[in-house]
Amino acid sequence: MFQKEAYTGTLEENYELVLAQLKALIAGESDLIANLSNASALLNVFLEEINWVGFYLVKNNQLVLGPFQGLPACIRIPFDKGVCGYVATTKQTALVQNVHEFVDHIACDSATNSEIVVPIIKDNELMGVLDIDSPLLNRFSKTDQHYLEKFVQILVESLI
């Protein structure tokens, strides 16, 4: 059973706790949708000042909405559009402090001002992306990036 923890340590300590919680949540479970659903819920509980967190999965050379927490979202994102498409194309994390300055940004939620997107890659193949939006400018840091990349790697390792 999951219990919400009090995240009262440093940012790094709190992320380490979240990584341990993720490992416990997905232990012994290989179903992608189940694990991504719990992962998005965990991040939604942990991360402050966000308005959307979820996954887009690769299907037919585009990103298709997967498990998420937040307002209803764009269902399909072409690889040549938005921050998610950029990450799908480059296979590199994008840390965008002001989405209004990002060419081709897709405004699924007009309240979003910053965004971080992490690619999900297994055996050099893009499987999807983790997308997190915030209503604040400059919400995400390099520390967030570091730990969210670790978070995604734990998910990748759970996939068969």
TrEMBL record:
Gene3D superfamilies: 3.30.450.40. InterPro entries: GAF, GAF-like_dom_sf, Phosphatase_reg/MetRdx. SUPFAM superfamilies: GAF domain-like. Residues 56-153 form the GAF domain. GO terms for cellular component: cytosol. It comes from the Bacteria. It holds the Pfam family GAF. GO terms for molecular function: L-methionine-(R)-S-oxide reductase activity. Signal peptide: none annotated. Belongs to the free Met sulfoxide reductase family. This is GAF domain-containing protein.
